[in-house]
């Protein structure tokens, strides 16, 4: 990937003259089944641009899940910058929305002169807060039919859309066909250092270029970044399938461990994300993450090695593990060993106190 970056043919992308960026945009548009695509620095910017293009009246309303990345982790950009109101609905465990509730919210707003005008539904696929779950294809079709009845558009935050495609064994375009626009991030599972695309019909992408310029996202010799994204796309299926296998193997190991400290349901591990539930009365997710990351002479003496495992405290009783191209099957086994060691130490400490 670094060799590809060093050898990339470049030009001025702000004038549409960078050949590597142009190649990437064409490849991404084909992959996603859209007329055109625009390369931007981040998926957060791509999502914001999509909302700005779809909701051009200030005070318009978008509907999305309460746990959606766009709603929780993107600094409320749709409100701060785009002047768009978000109606957040309760997510179901698999990352979907209750369609009856969604329709009720749309109907209530559409029929009222007091509510913001509903214009856009945003979906996230895979759904990060649901543990990397892929949205079912039948569900996407139902959302499309619903929004068509009310004249709304759909944007998909597909930062990890490639993971969903690999997990479901379909082309990304088969997923994206139900949406008016879609984001794809290159710096997650695809392993590039930066970059994302926003794809949709040609007129939307023309407008997106203007929004990118407004947000300071125009770049010059961006081919050095686009080259890395091209490599990521070329290796997509092989890389992501390995990540999914490693995540599933880890989840099965946690289940086999049978520790009261933490548990996981392997049946819901569909892609490269594993959510571990921490049992009541045991160390908090933050404390458990600190223990997993720390190394000690005691660990080295007992196991013959010292392993630093970095997980993320995700909620009050949950922590998150994510696999990527730099985490091997051997690394996954080491992670399992470290979790086993920490869980056993927690058990011994409890017994000593009691």
UniProtKB/TrEMBL annotation:
Domain Aromatic amino acid beta-eliminating lyase/threonine aldolase: 1-273
Superkingdom field: Eukaryota
A GO-annotated cellular component: cytosol
Cofactor or coenzyme needed: pyridoxal 5'-phosphate
GO BP of this protein: glycine biosynthetic process; L-threonine catabolic process
UniProt keyword Lyase, yes or no: yes
InterPro entries for this protein: ArAA_b-elim_lyase/Thr_aldolase, Low_specificity_L-TA-like, PyrdxlP-dep_Trfase, PyrdxlP-dep_Trfase_major, PyrdxlP-dep_Trfase_small
Keyword Membrane: no
UniProt keyword list: Lyase, Pyridoxal phosphate
Sites of N6-(pyridoxal phosphate)lysine modification: 188
Cited Gene3D superfamilies: Aspartate Aminotransferase, domain 1, Type I PLP-dependent aspartate aminotransferase-like (Major domain)
Molecular function terms, GO-annotated: L-allo-threonine aldolase activity
Family of this protein: Belongs to the threonine aldolase family.
Name of protein: Threonine aldolase 1
Organism name: Alligator mississippiensis (American alligator)
Organism phylogeny: Eukaryota, Metazoa, Chordata, Craniata, Vertebrata
